[in-house]
Predict the 3D structure of the following.
Amino acid sequence: MTAQLLTTLSANLNLVKLPQHVAVIMDGNGRWAKQKGLPRIEGHRRGASTLKEMLRYCKDLGIKTLTAYAFSTENWGRPIGEVNFLMTLFERLLQKELKEMEAEEVCINFIGDLSPLPRSLQQEMRHSMERTKNNQGVFFNVAINYGSRHEMVTACRNIAQKVQQGRISASDIDENTIAQHLYTSASPDPDLLIRTSGEMRLSNFLLWQLAYTEIYVTDTLWPDFDSEQFDRALEAYQQRDRRFGKKVS
Ligand code: IPE
Ligand code: IPE
Ligand code: MG
């Protein structure tokens, strides 16, 4: 842990009770920009640096996995200019940040259907996944063109194909089979989900994986979500009694 982190860390945080996997719905970039009289794309730009800070903070704290929702299957419905800006932003960020991610031992993984994305972006994504695949410092899943329903449909198709080919039998399909066919097969389920900007919905994010995740919603808009805000979310998480449907102890 860095000396700088030790001086800024909230005294209320219990470092031995941290979530292992945090998922985040980074919402409110547009409203942040609007409040400041800026174009929406400025909000996305600022949102990207918030994500970078959060990833570093996770690594410093020893939170093993961060999964961030960057672009949903429904976000194609936004104005073409905003969609194009986001695609270009993702590509530029990957080019710019790859060296630092390698140095920081980040293992980046993209979840979602990458096939409709611009070819040059897909190339950067594959390249960054390949270059960081052996890193163990922090696992960073970025959901781009991700939709939970689409993910489940794809999983069903793949499982059905295996049944058709006689590789597995229908009666052998269990929860583990389904989990293994999702984009997130390599990660444990999130312990904590954070959604910024006050919306109380999942917006098609990780519907299967969030079955027993603790949910934290804050009114703070994503570009303003700093380490202090994150500490608050972690403190709230530590107050929760995770019963998993079992008897209260
Ligand atoms: C989240 O911020 C970023 C993406 C969905 C890409 P929004 O762009 O949804 O911001 P609001 O919700 O309009 O404020
Ligand atoms: C969810 O935010 C998707 C991402 C953060 C990438 P949206 O802004 O798209 O969600 P809704 O439209 O408010 O449900
Ligand atoms: Mg939004």
